[in-house]
Amino acid sequence: MIHRLLIANRGEIACRIIRTCRALGIETVAVYSDADATLPHVIQADQAIRLGPAPARESYLDIEKVIAAAQQSGADAVHPGYGFLSENAAFANACDAAGLIFVGPGTDAIRLMGDKAAARQHMAQHQVPVLPGFDREGASDDELLAATGEIGFPLLIKAVAGGGGKGMRVVERAEDFADALAAARREARGAFGDDRVLLERYLEQARHVEVQVFADSHGNAVHLFERDCSVQRRHQKIIEEAPAPGVSDALRQQLGDAAVRAALAIDYRGAGTVEFLLAPDGQFYFMEMNTRLQVEHPVTELITGEDLVAWQLSVAAGGALPKQQSELRIQGHAMEVRLYAEDPARQFMPSSGLLAVCEWPQQPGLRVDTGFGEGDRVSDHYDPMLAKIICFGDDRDQARRRLARALAHTRIAGIRHNIPFLISVLQHPAFAQAELSTRFLAQHQPATGVEDESLPLRLCAAALCWRDQLRARADDDPWSQLGGWQHLAPARFVATFQLDDRLHTVILEGQDDALHARCDDQRLSLHWQSGTGRLADTDSHHSLTASARLDGEHLHLFSNGHTDSLLLNPNLGNADDAARGAAFAAPMNGTVVACHVSAGSRVDAGAAVITMEAMKMEHTLRAPVAGVVRELPFAAGDTVSEGALLAVFDADDTENAG
Q1: Could you tell me which residue ranges the Lipoyl-binding domain spans (predicted)?
Q2: What is the pLDDT of residue 225?
Q3: pTM of this prediction?
Q4: Residue 355 domain-assigned?
Q5: Residue 439 falls in the annotated catalytic set
C-alpha cells in the first residue's frame, strides 16, 4: 500500500494524479520550479517542495533533486506522470536505489522500448508486425542514404531515442533527404542528447491506432481497447478518441492480442501504450511502445469506467490487476482535444504570458483536465498545453458535437490559443465522417482561424458588448466612463479598436432589434440580443454568441471559440510607416539554430530566414515581405528573448514594381 506519493511532474497531469490520490486516501507531494510556484498542482498537494530555477534541466529533469525531495517529504513512492523523467531508466533505477516505489515498469523495459531501433527488432522477434525499414545501430549518413534505395520514398526519419514527434521528418523525395536528416538529427540531439535515427517506410494514408495495455507483477496482462490518434500536426497528437471508429470486433481483438503479446515479451509492469499504424487494408504495424501513462488516457477511462491512475498505484504496490480481460467492456464514445497556448497566425508557435481570463465550460458529458486557472502564468520553459477538453457521448457524433460546443464556450485570454482551429477540425465534414489518417490536416487543411470571415461581425459584437457595459456603469455614474466613447446621438455609437497592430472603427446606429453598422469599409445589418449575447447579420445570415470582459483599456471578446483582445480607442501613429522596414521579432524565448540567409540576401515573401528552437521543437521564421535582408543581429547558437529583433528587411517598392 502506498501512503505518500511524490508526483515528479507539473501542471495538468500532477493535478489529475492528485485527484485520484485524494479518492484513495493517499497523501501527495508536489514539486515545482520557480516558474510554477503558484500553479494549482502546488496548491492542491498536501506538501510542495521547490526543485530549482525554471529551466527543466535545473528542476524537473534533475534526478538528484527529485530523489532528495522524495526523501525529504517522507514519500514511499514516486509517480513520474508523462514527459520529463517518465521514460528515463536512470530515474527508475535511482528510485529503486533510494527505496522508493517507482510507479511504472522496470528499468529493462523502459530502456528497451526507449530505443526505437531495439524495440522494432524485439517486436519482430515476437511476431508483432513491423514496417519495412532500416534500424542498424550507429549507421552513418551515407549508410542511411544508401538504405533509402531499398525502402523507397516517401519514408520517415525517426529519432531512435525520440518521442512526442521530436526528431521526426517525412521525406518525399531523395533530393530532400540530406537536409531532412540533418534537421532530424539536430532536433533529436537537442531534445534527447542522442542524434541516432532509423528509417521506416511511410504509409501516406495510415491511421494512428494505439492500444492501452496493463500488466502486473503476477504474470497477468490485459488491454483496455484502442484509441485513434490520427489527427496530428508535426507528428504531435491534437485529437484523440476511443474506441477507434470503423474498427471491427475481429480487428479489435487482433490489435489487443498483439499489444498484450508485446507487453508480455518485455516482462512489462503497469500502464503502457502500444502504438500501431493501421493501413487502409486492415494490416497494422508496430511503431513504438510508450512505457508510461499517455496524455490521452482520459478517453479510455470514460469508455471503460476505470481509473487508470488507481490501477497504476495498485499494480506498483504489488497488487494484481483490478480486472481480467473478460470483465472489461466498451460503453459509448469519448473524444479529447489538446488545448494549446499557441499562435495559429505564427505557424502555431508557443504563446506564453498571464492568463487574464480562464473560464472552463460546464455541460453534460464534459471533463476538463488542466493545471491552470485565471491569473496563472503560462511559462515558455515547458510544453504549451493548457488543458485537455474531453467529452463523452452515447456515440461518436454526440461526443464530437458536445466537444465542439464545449470549446465554443471556453473563455481564455492573455495568451494565444488554438480553440478556433480545433473547432474547425471537429466540424470538418471529413472528420465528422471519420475519414481519418495521419495526413488529415495536410489533405483537408481545416481553417486555422487566422483568415476568418467572421472578423467584422466579431468587431461589431465587441462594440456592442463594450457599449452595454458602459451603459450599465453609466447607470450608477453617468460621467465616470464618458472618456472612452462618443455618444454622438441618442442612437449612435462609435468605437475604435486596435487588434494585432491594426486599427478598426465600428459605427453603430439604430435600436438593438434593427441596427446598421459600418465596420471599417464593410456595412452590416444586425440584430443584437444583449441578454443572450446573440448577434446576427440579417443580410448574410451569419450569427454568433458573444461575451466580453473589460479589463482597463482592454476588452476581451469571446465568440464561437475566438478570443479577440482589443485595445480601446488606441492612439497610434501611421501603421503603414511603422511597418515599412518590415522587421520581425522573436515570437518567444529560444535559441537560433540556423540562419538560412545572410545580410544582403534577396528573399521572396515566405522564404525561410531563421530557425529557432523553443520548448524542444524547431520553428522556422519566414520573410514577411519580398526584399533584401538588411541586417541579421543574431547567429546560430545565440539565445534570444521574446521580442528581440531577428532580421530587418528592405521591402521591395510595390508601387514601382513591374
Answers
A1: 572-650
A2: 98
A3: 0.83
A4: yes
A5: no
